[in-house]
Specification:
The protein is of the alpha/beta class. It is about 40% helix and about 20% strand. It comes from Gossypium armourianum.
């Protein structure tokens, strides 16, 4: 199903910017990524190179088969994240990281501030956002 504006018209390509989902192999992240893909948005997913979990590998494969583009790296590497955001012209960043990785988002937020492409940053865990602002 393609997303539409409230008036029923379809967004044009310039209104459906590139989206990066972080934490896409987790429970919430998988559904967020599927929704982005189902809306027709070009969707990138950031995957840690060190992930050895068979269930996470299965989820990543499923999302790839649906059209997600995999980028291997870490949100803790600010320079790498800046490069990804610029190179792929990411306009929307959705972070669904949780647990011990929540505070790792600070490097990501700094990267977002340093590039001029990101229009929207959403994080599924308000603690990381509030902590950063304080």
């Amino acid at each position: 199903m393609k997303s539409t504006h409230m008036n029923g018209s379809y967004p044009n390509e310039s209104e459906t910017g590139q989206t990066l989902v972080i934490g896409s192999s987790g429970f919430i992240g998988r559904f967020i990524t599927e929704a982005c893909l189902d809306s027709g948005r070009p969707t990138y997913i950031l995957v840690r190179s060190s992930s050895n979990s068979p269930s996470k590998a299965s989820t990543i494969k499923f999302l790839q088969d649906k059209g997600a583009i995999v980028v291997y790296g870490s949100i803790t590497d600010q320079e790498f994240m800046e490069k990804v955001l610029r190179e792929y012209k990411i306009e929307v960043v959705i972070s669904a990281v949780g647990g011990e990785s929540i505070l790792d988002q600070f490097s990501l937020i700094e990267a977002i501030k340093n590039v001029n492409t990101v229009k929207v940053y959403l994080c599924s865990n308000i603690y990381a956002c509030v902590c950063y602002v304080m």
